[in-house]
Amino acid sequence: MEVERPRQDNPAMTLDEASMEQSKSFVKALQELKNLRPQLYSAADYCEKSYLHSEQKQMVLDNLKDYAVRALVNAVDHLGTVAYKLTDLLEQQTLDVSSMELKVSCLDQQLLTCQTFTVKEGLRQQQLLAIIPRHHKHYILPNSVNKKVHFSPHIQTDARQSHIQTRPRLFPAGTPASKTLSWHLASETKSTLKGSRTFTRLVTGTLAYTLIMQLYENAEEGARTKSSAAYLQLSNAGPVSGAAMQTLGGARRDPLDGSKPLTAFRSFDTPTRREVVRTPIRSKSMLSAFFVKQKTLKT
Amino acid sequence: MARAGGITEAVNVGIAVQADWDNREFISQISHNVRALFDFLVKFEATTKSKLASLNEKLDTLERRLELIEVQVGTATANPSLFTP
Question: Are A248 and A267 in contact, with CB atoms under 8 Å apart?
Fold first, then answer.
């Protein structure tokens, strides 16, 4: 354990020592650079005096040239070492500062957590003191009609009479009002969804029926070849139209017997005529046959 | 004899001129290197100044953050009842 302690301390000391040695070497190099200046001044004075007073001037000049070159190289070397040590020292200092920034940010985060804890604790203590009442939602309509109107969830949806079931039913007063409005609304949406599918089917069927009737009348007025071409076109359009044509052929007389033919479409060709427009009566047998045919095609 | 003297004088002048040209070339090279050294020193001074300025700014921000932390810790230690459940 005692051996471990100095080992644990040595890394910390070596880091400080390394930084101290770095700074020491920088200071030493800087001092040497500073000392280089008086040396160069003294060498320049000596060379000047010797050139003036000696007889072998050429030799002095040659020596002076060599000394100038060496002095320049020496000065460059010293400046290089000082610059290198200074940049190294600055890099070390920036690294230390960045590590300190990280530590400070850690401290900030710790303080922030403490603050949030105190705030939350305070809020919790305040919340415990206050008792907030809760109200259940029971909505009852005004008593003007003296009846409670709400949708019954127990309606059985049949395939034949599905379009009728979407209507609301009035129940007599006295029924229990234990069910909440949200529950009733949820049950209503389920029933309306089922009704909407049949309703769309009905709409598409009626549209197809009107189109077919229009084409049939137009074909009847023209030549037989034109009508046959129209029939062929309709049959090639798809199975639905083919089924519609079959039903049309089968129950062709029913709409015609019930009402006048679709003379309104003739009015587009001859605008001078004014004729009564009557929509064809949609017999139940016709529609039921149409829907049955559709089902058979889908299956 | 006079001609030989003249020739020697011309040769000496030539040699002197050559030496002078050599000296001037040497001086120009020395001055060029000294100017390069001076440019290096100027650039080094600029970069070192910028690095020191950034370091100083970082230290200033660190000082302010530490002061703030010190104040916050002081307030927290002054009211220890806040942390007791």
Answer: no
For residue B42, tell me if it sits in a domain. yes
Closest partner CB to A97 (pick from B44, B58, B85): B58
Tell me what ipTM this predicted complex has: 0.81
Q: Is B58 in contact with A108 (Cβ distance < 8 A)?
A: no
| Number of independent structural domains in chain B | 1
Q: Is residue B33 part of a domain?
A: yes
Minimum distance, in Å, between the CA of residue A9 and any CA atom of chain B: 27
- Partner A contacted by B8 (CB < 8 A): no
**Residue A150, exposed/middle/buried by CB under 10 A (0-12, 13-18, 19+)?**
buried
A118 → closest Cβ in B44, B51, B83: B83
The answer to the question of residue B82 being in a domain is no
Report pLDDT digits (tens) over A181-239: 555 555 554 454 454 455 555 556 666 666 777 676 676 666 555 555 544 544 444 44
Sign of CA dihedral A39, A45, A49, A55: positive
pLDDT digit string, tens, across residues A114-141: 889 888 888 888 877 666 666 666 665 5
Q: Kindly determine whether residue A97 and residue B59, on different chains, have CB atoms separated by under 8 Å.
A: yes
The domain in which residue B45 lies consists of: 10-77
pTM: 0.48
Assigned domain for B1 exists? no
